[in-house]
Write a structure and sequence with these properties.
- By secondary structure, this protein is α+β, with helices and mostly antiparallel strands.
- It folds into two domains: about 80 residues; about 140 residues, Heat Shock Protein 90 (2-Layer Sandwich).
- It has six helices and seven strands; from the N terminus they run ααβααββαββαββ.
- The chain has a five-stranded mixed beta sheet. Strands 1-3 form a two-stranded antiparallel sheet.
- The two termini are about 40 Å apart.
Length: about 220
């Protein structure tokens, strides 16, 4: 009986530890979301009060990158321990948000996102999401609000043993030298893409083939 009682007590203690850990994870997650909301509100307040157009544009770009991180955290769910996000759903939401902010809802509605269910951890999802955000923004800048012929496709090529990828294609005009990944005078967005690609032990390639094509490759996350 003593052995059974000790075993029962041990199980109860383990259960208590698991419940406390579960509660702590929930509290940390919700605190993080609240902190992100506070920062978001500060961005919005500064944008409302900024009169310098050039500075306002840079603030908007920074705010957009910050919103990528917010979107990732909103996509996390308790079911997977707040550690992974469905990246296909994230892509769709990000494109819809950006198109709406630029007055291009028709572009998002016709976009083809041929992306399998893929769950990525935060360490991969945030830098990859920031890369995609730069690509989306660069592509959408070339589109006028009355253009109804734009086509965007996002797909995932066959993965190799250690590498995964994402392909973005539009049928717009060439982004030209401004967005060449190996440009000798890269923009901030291009430098950001290169740095984040290296962070993911990957690379991003750009070419023009009847439209702008970006291929993003990254190391396959550990299971």
């Amino acid at each position: 009986m003593s052995i059974e009682k000790d075993a029962s007590n041990m199980i109860e203690k383990q259960k208590d530890v698991a419940e406390k850990k579960d509660t702590q994870i929930r509290e940390i997650f919700h605190r993080t979301k609240n902190d992100l909301q506070i920062i978001s509100s500060l961005f919005e307040l500064q944008l409302m009060n900024e009169e310098d157009d050039s500075l306002k544009e840079k603030l908007l770009e920074g705010f957009g990158r910050f919103q990528v991180m917010v979107l990732v955290y909103r996509g996390l769910s308790y079911g997977d321990g707040y550690t992974e996000i469905d990246f296909g759903k994230f892509l769709k939401q990000l494109l819809e948000n950006l198109c709406a902010s630029k007055g291009l809802p028709q572009v998002a509605s016709r976009a083809v996102i041929d992306f399998p269910e893929l769950f990525l951890n935060v360490d991969t999802a945030i830098p990859l999401g920031l890369i995609v955000n730069e690509i989306f923004n660069a592509s959408l800048k070339n589109i006028s609000t009355d253009n109804n012929d734009v086509k965007i496709t996002i797909s995932m090529p066959p993965e190799s043993e250690n590498e995964m990828g994402l392909v973005y294609r539009d049928n717009g005009e060439s982004l030209g030298g401004e967005f060449e990944i190996n440009n000798s005078s890269p923009t901030f967005g291009t430098r950001l893409i290169k740095g984040l690609s290296q962070q993911l032990s990957g690379r991003t390639e750009y070419l023009y083939d009847k439209g702008n094509v970006f291929r993003v490759f990254f190391r396959k996350p550990e299971s």
